[in-house]
Amino acid sequence: MKNFKLLLSCRIFLAVVVVTLFASGVAEAQSTVPFKGTFAIAESIQFIGTPQCMLAGQISGTGLVTLVGKVTLDSIDCINPISETEFSFSSDQLVLTVANGDQIFATYSGILRKEGPVGIISGGYQIVGGTGLYSLARGAGTVQGVEDISTGIGRVQLNGTITY
């Protein structure tokens, strides 16, 4: 009987250790970490002329993201004039592709304000999933940047968090 109680106690202890280790591994897999990236971008703009979207911007770029590494960026955004010097932009099609081929999907929106030949970009983004390691990714943050209005060449920074 003594051996049975000792064996049962050992099994319960072992089960508690396994559950604790598993739970801590799950918590680590779903930790929230900083998501900061700087991207060199190029945008080409086309006139669309629909009531929902006056212009479409095709954006591509490359950059570095903390804890992720080298990333390529592809997006199509909808651009609408607010005034002669301000434009709203938004997209639900941002794809960031990391070196191993996994992707992070995001949406974003904001304002581009013309200051001479330069557009000042400010807005926000939301991470809404992805593939591979990032299939359950969530996060949010700010978008800041500049773009040469005549060439479409610019630089954008993302600053926020990601959970995956």
CATH architecture of the largest domain: Beta Barrel
> Would you report the number of β strands?
8
Low-confidence stretches: 3-28
Strand order in space, largest sheet: 1-2-3-4-5-6-7-8
Reading the helices and strands in chain order gives HEEEEEEEE
Q: How many domains in all?
A: 2
Mind telling me the CATH class of the largest domain?
Mainly Beta
Strand content: over 45%
Rounded average pLDDT: 88
Rg, rounded, reads: 23 Å
* Shape call: globular
Give me the CATH fold name of the largest domain.
Answer: AOC barrel-like
Largest sheet composition: 8 strands, antiparallel, barrel
- What's the end-to-end separation, in Å? 48 Å
Q: Counting H and I runs of at least 4 residues, what is the number of helices? A: 1
Give the structural class: alpha+beta
Q: What level of helicity do the residues show? A: 10-25%
Brief characterization of the structure:
With 164 residues, this protein is an alpha+beta fold. The chain contains one helix and eight strands.
Features:
164 residues, alpha+beta, eight-stranded antiparallel beta barrel, disordered N terminus, single chain, globular, AOC barrel-like, 2 domains
Write up this protein:
It is a single chain. 17% of the residues lie in helices and 62% in strands. By secondary structure, the chain is an alpha+beta fold. The chain has 2 domains: 1-30; 32-163, AOC barrel-like. The chain has an 8-stranded antiparallel β-barrel. Strand 4 (86-98) and strand 5 form a beta hairpin.
